[in-house]
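ok here's RHOMBOID-like protein:
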Amino acid sequence: MASGDLERGGGSNVKNRGNSYNQSSSSSYYVENNEKQWTSWLVPMFVVANVAVFVVVMYVNNCPRNNQGFEGGCVARFLGRLSFEPLKENPLFGPSSNTLEKLGALNWDKVVHGNQAWRLITCIWLHAGVIHLLANMLSLIFIGIRLEQQFGFIRVGLIYLLSGFGGSVLSSLFIQRSISVGASGALFGLLGAMLSELLTNWTIYTNKVILVASGSYLLRNAMKGNQGYR
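and the structure:
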């Protein structure tokens, strides 16, 4: 009788321990996944803003009317005013350098001697062409949305803008003979934030492969930038 109670008690204890273990495991899993997930809206807004600015730039560029100095006609003339400059002038399918400069591209001489410091900000939102725009926007989506979901729009927005400004300052120091446009400085800031967070929380991080691949993609894209295209 006693042994039966002991057996029943033992079974109950084992069962309780099992339940306790399961609850502990569930609790531990819950703690790791209890991190607040923000809704990403700022990064998509940045993407829309960059695309909208590019459309405006192409409209102002008006290749069919203004292209006079280069051989060959405008590319994709069926787009009308939005058609691209000849590939000899811009191989990235975009506007002329004169249009970019007129609309706010970074120009060292005008920033330093023309008191046009605002170009340090406006150049972040300009892109040299469709290829340049797509590469930067894909990088922004891969990196920025994940960061905004985890850290919120305020932190990600500050990182993006401050890094973009810092990248413009560096570009003005090292690229003085040509104009500079693009958001690579801002993207490098987001990449640095992502790598820092990834290394700090590697053991509990999900989708490591996706993040590493995204970081590699952004780094490769940024390293290809030259001639003032950032």
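+1. The longest helix spans residues 2-32.
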